[in-house]
Amino acid sequence: MPSPLALTVRPGPGELRSLPADPPRDAEGLPMRYVYRSDAPLSVDEQQ
User: Fold this and answer.
1) What is the DSSP string of 2-45?
2) For position 47, what pLDDT does the model report?
3) Which residues in the chain show pLDDT less than 50?
4) 41: which of 9, 20, 22, 34 is 20 to 30 A away, CA to CA?
5) Do 8 and 37 meet the contact criterion of CB atoms below 8 Å apart?
6) What is the C-alpha separation between 37 and 17, in angstroms, rounded?
């Protein structure tokens, strides 16, 4: 099964970041993460 792919045509300011910052890998070795563009990392509330 192919992996999903997202692409921004016109990138905004900021650098590419990943959530989580150090993602786990699936059975095929691919990182399980969301990639986003931002000047600063998002904060994650882990007490849900």
Assistant:
1) PPP----SS--SSEEEEESSS--B-TTS-B--EEEEESSPPP--
2) 56
3) none
4) 9
5) yes
6) 6
